[in-house]
Design brief:
It is a single chain. With about 130 residues, the chain is mostly helical. The protein has one domain. It is about 85% helix and about 0% strand. It contains 6 helices and no strands. α1 packs antiparallel against α6 and α3 packs antiparallel against α4. The longest helix is centred in the N-terminal third of the chain and has 22 residues.
């Protein structure tokens, strides 16, 4: 199976579930985000996880082509950069996260974006 399809089949449904959770439990996700931002250990751990996931995607699917597979490549690079940022600049992660939490539409708008991306990947992974 092509790596792009495998990644889409895993990431697509996961993103759809995350988006549903965000839509149905907004306050719970807001609380989790606050707790996350208050934990340097979680910021670091999520940074290492994001770095590893991004690195694996980039290693197996670094395709700069004019089709849907470039979305997987972009996700990989964004995850890799996000991981580096969380490991190297944890204070900035906390500062930026707190600013986002002040915006009342952050979770609803974010959940629709995550849902759209998840549905797209799920369809493309078929």
């Amino acid at each position: 199976m092509e790596p792009s399809v495998l990644i889409a089949r895993i990431a697509g449904p996961l993103l759809v579930l995350v988006a549903l959770g965000m839509l149905l439990n907004r306050e719970h996700y807001r609380t989790m985000t606050r707790e996350f931002l208050d934990s340097p250990s979680l910021i670091y751990l999520s940074g290492t996880l994001a770095f590893v996931v991004g690195m694996v995607i980039v290693m197996f699917n670094n395709l700069w082509v004019a089709d849907w597979r470039v979305v997987i490549t972009l996700i990989g690079w964004i995850s890799l950069i996000k991981g580096i940022g969380r490991i190297v600049f944890p204070q900035a992660v906390r500062r930026n996260g707190e600013k986002l939490l002040e915006k009342p539409l952050f979770i609803p708008v974010g959940s629709f974006f995550v849902m759209a991306l998840g549905l797209y990947l799920t369809i493309m992974g078929q």
